[in-house]
Amino acid sequence: MKTAFNAPPATRGFGLLEVVLATGILALVVTGAVALLNGALRRANLSAERTTAMNLAQEGIELVRAARDITFIDDENNAWDANLPISTDEGTLQAAGSDPYGIAYVLVPGSGGLYAWQLRKNYPPTAFIGGGIANGIQTIPLNDIDYQREVYVTVPSLGYVTQAGLPNGVTDDDIIRKIKVIVRWGDSAGQAVESITYLTNWRTGT
Predict the structure, then answer these.
(1) Which of 9, 37, 150, 164 could form a disulfide with 100 if both were Cys (CB 3.0 to 4.6 A apart)?
(2) In whole angstroms, what is the distance from residue 10 CA to residue 6 CA?
């Protein structure tokens, strides 16, 4: 008697179409993951750069405040705003103005060797101000990025006096200066932030 054995079915492999489809799906998944990762890295870098720029803008505000305050301790009989030259216009986040200033650490005349922060149109590079000041624009290299800082000092409108509740007869020109600091960076300075404050004549009796 002959016994019949059924041969096991042949093992079926992957077809060419299945391999192509699987490869395509894998490529889409990997490409999407890489794009998400790159986007996250770009956002993280931009956030870090923006934080640095905001810190530089706030630093600019404080240095202008220091420039105002030095008139209290120098040996010259200066007006409270002697170190706050008025800009003819203000820059915006979209474009620089025509009359910005940089901030330099300079020797104060008549102070007996005292150095202080003062606004300048041009100043060579130093350890204190980085890349220097040219035409009122200060270049500050940090982390392989050149940040550009602009300082504008203007007299605010009379409306600000009313809103601030200042005494009658006081004009903006008497005691108030608006300080705007803009910091730009990126390709053609495409990114920008700004910080604004108001400085007043804080001297007693004036």
Answers:
(1) 150
(2) 12
The CA distance from 49 to 134, in Å, is: 23
Contact predicate 133/98, CB 8 Å? no
pLDDT of 10-35, one tens digit each?
556 567 777 777 788 888 888 877 77
> Residue 59, Cα to own-chain centre: how many angstroms?
10
Residue written as token pair 């500050």: 140
Q: Choose among 65, 68, 67, 49: nearest CA to 140.
A: 49
Alpha carbon distances (Å) from 40 to 31, 45, 52, 68, 133: 14, 9, 18, 42, 35
Half-sphere exposure of 93 (CA within 13 A, CB side): 9
Tokens of 193: 């932030």
Q: Closest Cα partner for 93 from 135, 145, 152?
A: 152
pTM: 0.75
Strands 102-107 and 115-120, by their bridges, are: antiparallel
| CA 24/CA 18 separation, integer angstroms | 10
